[in-house]
């Protein structure tokens, strides 16, 4: 299994007792003014050693619109590293509003 998180509000999460997936890609816009990259994505990456972190220079919170090519490249690179490139990708979106 793999997890891809884009601009995750990880500063709100408690990591005690969680078992992270073997592959976790975290993507964040460097200039995100909604979810601070240092407080959230960098913290998440440091807490989950097997994660990969991509900080997209010049992108804000809507990084998936501003740099969709870089996101596709990052996902492809993760798939290549783990030998699953070209396989079917199942996507589950969990949304939590507070």
Order of helices and strands: EEHEHH
Radius of gyration: 13 Å
Query: Taking strands numbered 1, 2, ... along the chain, how are they ordered across the largest sheet?
Result: 1-2-3
Rounded average pLDDT: 78
Tell me roughly what share of residues is in helical segments. Answer: 25-40%
Q: How does the major sheet shape up?
A: 3 strands, parallel
Which terms would index this structure?
single chain, 98 residues, alpha/beta, 3-stranded parallel beta sheet, 3 strands, 29% helix, flat
Protein model, in words:
The protein is of the alpha/beta class. It has 3 helices and 3 strands. The protein has a 3-stranded parallel beta sheet with strand order 1-2-3, with helices on both faces.
